[in-house]
């Protein structure tokens, strides 16, 4: 295939869309982890090439009245929670649902199209897109093109539906909005002008080379209270300053020990279901250099300081779960806001890239001369935050704080790279990934092994991205949300607010705790995979300052334990780190004990092994009115399991076994089928609920609050079925249908799963 390549030097000759009256498009997205945003970016690129004047933004940044100002609106939204709208659509959605708009036909002139992203493993498949579509039609808007519902479970994921939809959509646009004579669509192999503007300002001298090294060394340890981690702490001095020598040595370590690497990590839950295959065996003795603890000017952000960062799972356990404690300085306002959230709050953390990764990218791109000079960013994405110190950001700063250089590369990114290499072989190889019919190759190279942008760029050394394009090309780092796991507005001893001017009164910081399961695993790529946030949290040291955000639990069915709800019994079901919001709820209820009769609490906790993942298990016996039924799926047959894991190890851990059980058998074991014998399956929470039918039915009669937290997928479905089984079995209702109605009307049923 031969492709005409623009050399970077000729970048000024860009193909610009022409202005055509009555040809404008808004592309509005709702996204939690970036998939919908990525599609919105692609659709905008397509629309610009068809000479539409475009505006692409999160739904929440768009006013309802602005919908009337464009020729077309394309909505791209994922579904989150249990059929919920994504967080960055909630304001827009609230406005759209205002009662006074009913029957107003206020969106009469609006033409729209919707693309939904979902996962058919969830009961409410693509509900966000469906709800949005229904409401827009109710308000008089017209659907310009058929809606699509992409399913992540499809063979090629979202693309299976998206790619053909996009082609049809493009054809419909050209048909209904024909271009004037003499104007043709801009072909895909011509570069469009950048959307954002970045310019290196030549004035500032580069920072001294060792400045960042000295400062970050102060923060390069994990502070754990356990004796083992104490030993780690003592050894945790940087031993080798020249990346990547030390880490690379460590990485080779695990590969030699485990034999052949693993090549498949493409199924949900695979890591959890086959921990011995994918988890890393060693714990590193030396942590990498951590990013500078500079704080970011995040809107509604508050200042926080790390108080503790303790691993709560044993070191030889496959999963590193952290209990991380922060002091948050938000003053009276924050304290009252958190009290209002009543044990259901979310802490958002903004992770950063590590200095060695940033330096590697700078080397690869040849940016060493400009990396530490200030940038003029007159137009930048909203989520590119400045640092609090108000110095102009440098390229190194934004690569550290804002741009996700270790994300899995998406199609847009690869397509743009074709413009920035002079090497024709590279251009052809990059294009190969993008050609129709090559979706599998693209997936095998990117998502399957979880290859990062940085790794892709080192596979294509001819690619040199101009600094002016960085904001257009790299995805922006997304914050990660964690359920706060302590309740009550717990204040710590008075301290001085580090942000306040000298001489002001001491403040009481708010203590906020989270339980974070770090994502670390191996694939065919030699270097272990680590989530960006996991890596950041793993080495987050005591006293590290950072900016965080605290917000109420999302979703439309958030259950607030208001005083009346507190008097009801609570049936809590938690698996693994799902215990975090439940612990917060339990602690929050205790706050009411002084002047209210708090209802009793029953907790069904599900884990694998009592001695490995019974998070906070030691705390329960001290809580009045709480009964706990812990169940551990792997404690029952340790010998058999050990044997199986040994066998997996001998095979080198690289063979993806077909499940030995059929879906139906798995469902029986998992308690999803009706009328099963609770003693037949493993010790899962749903089986335990059936086993305790009498106690559960007793609580059900009293209109309890039911809270189910943990992994999404089969667990919440199985648990709900178990509750219905109990209602039927204990003759509270005649049949399952009535049981479902009971749960809907007589119980406050809250799910928080992920
Ligand atoms: C915590 C969580 C909850 C989800 N809930 C649903 C759901 O209720 N219905 C659905 O169809 N998909 C659900 N999904 C699947 C997402 O919609 C899907 O992964 C999508 O690609 C995410 O796109 P985003 O990155 O733009 O948010 C859920 C995914 C997660 C992680």
TrEMBL record:
First and last residue of the signal peptide: none
Entries under Pfam families matching the protein: FAD_binding_1 (PF00667), Flavodoxin_1 (PF00258), NAD_binding_1 (PF00175)
The keyword tRNA processing is assigned to this record: no
Region (Disordered): 640-661
Cofactor needs: FMN; FAD
Entry keyword annotation includes S-adenosyl-L-methionine: no
Record's keyword terms, sorted: FAD, Flavoprotein, FMN, NADP, Oxidoreductase
Recorded coiled-coil stretches: none
Flavodoxin-like domain boundaries: 25-170
PANTHER family: NADPH-DEPENDENT DIFLAVIN OXIDOREDUCTASE 1, NITRIC OXIDE SYNTHASE-RELATED
Name of the protein described by the UniProt record: NAPDH-dependent diflavin reductase
Biological classification of the source: Eukaryota, Fungi, Dikarya, Ascomycota, Pezizomycotina
Gene assigned in the entry: TAH18
